[in-house]
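cache lookup: miss for this entity combination. No prior model stored, computing from scratch. Input as submitted by user K.M.:
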Amino acid sequence: MDQNQLGNLWYVVGFVIAGTGFVFGTIALAWLLSHRTRGDEHKGYPYESGIDTFGDSHARFGIPFYIYALMFVAFDIEIVFIFLWALVFQDLLLGGLVSMLIFVAILMLGLAYAWRKGVLSWR
Amino acid sequence: MNRSASPASLIGRVVIPLLLIALVVGPVAVVFLATVIGPWVVGVVNSNLGILRFVLAIAGVLLFSIPAAFIIIYMELKVIAYMNLRVGPNRVLPAGAAHSVVAGLKVLTKEDFTPNGADRIVFTWSPVLVFLTAVMTFMVVPFGPGLVGAPLNIGLLYLFAVGGMSVVGLLLAGWSSFNKYSLLGGLRSAAQVVSYEIPLTLSVVGLILLAGTLSIDSIGRQQAGWVWDWFVFRQPLGALIFFIAGVAEANRTPFDLTEADSEIVAGFATEYSGMRFGFLFFAEYVNVFIMSALIVTMFFGAWNAPVDVNWLLRLVGVGPLSINLDPGQLGSSLMAAAAVVPLLATLILAAPVYLLRRHRPAWQALLAGFLLLNLLVLGVIGLAAYMDWDWVAGLVWFMLKSFVFVFVFVWMRATFPRVRIDQLMGFAWKWLLPAALLNLFVTAFAIVLIKSAGIN
């Protein structure tokens, strides 16, 4: 089985290479088929509803994006643990249920704190 | 005489010598192929079945994603048109059936432009990443029993690990475009996809508890039987959460804030044009199909028919069907049948057409008879394949169910208004996440109860 699963990893590599090749091949074909014009200086400007660009195009953005990303990391790692727990749950039963309840309760405490602090309401 | 060469003489000068050469070379080539190259090719193929499967799987997935995307785009145009009491595309082929293909070809010939401030390398690589994510998720989706790119035993984990990569692609597309709208669109899609990833993943945990495996193939096999053996009846809340979060993951209405054209133009795709734009949207439609396929695979019985076929057959008193036609045993009678039956059947099928519409010329009736014969033969072969090979039956049911869900996706786009971003994020964290955890613990508790009661 191990040999088989190791062989399956080659499928991942193969899909990456073939997918990338497919996309770049199509883009190259499009480059050969398509027309190109130089245009005037306005052609290369970032699109801003028809007026010339105003200010820095890498604009500043809100803090909530970062906070959501941080919360995602915390919960995603939790999910990795939960997946493993769920896989062997049929052998753990009550003990597993109680320990997972405690584990999730700690995380829920964090979510409740974030909720109370108003992080979850977009500002 | 100073006549210019007529077309016939041109054909005569070019084609007839070629035909003569073909007549001489053809039989020699056939004999050569059959005796020398044929066994060699068969030998090579037989000793490299693993590599052949590898190549076929990759080519199959890549080539399937193209018509799937075109069909979904056409459905989106036509279905929404009918829902809006419009006609929709009706120019290319009857009912505009090839409209999306022609649109795709048009994108291929458009100028692929990079704006001045853009980071060229990242700008090119981000559509690649987005499309690659879609293709790599396709790898573990089973289209039928055994009809899967690679049957990973960690399929679900792989699915969510790779599926999360699309965030990187969208974020890079937004950042590298050097445009305020793109930046906002990229960040929005990152925040949205990241937030809905959590309930999407948690909603499946109840299913893993029941199935006891991470292999998608095995989850599909466990749902064989009747309709009520499907996991949706044991995990209704999980299925609902998975569907809602899946819609958000695929950036579809009502959660399509990343392309909210009334707010941020086209979001992360604002500066894209030509084939790179094409791939961003290609990937979106492939994602729609993947989401439908995953919902079907995990909750709606995968490739299994809604009725237990074996039970039905036993009821009628027939064993598992198998058709055994040995050409060698049938011998010359088969050859005779192959020579006579098509001709006779064409004539027989043409007769009613000719009798019913007497003003039609005879050749039209014959053509109609021939087409009817082909349809009949296709139907018989299809039926035989359906009954004899379980992967054909699986593919049929899988595609039917998947496209029902694709239709639901399109239907939702015609029906629902777009939500606000604060509603979107609040819904994920305040409702879906607790609901998914509730589903998880209720399932676990039920399993503990059933196991300790000794029902097994």
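stored under new cache key. Chain A touches chain B through 65 residues (CB under 8 Å).
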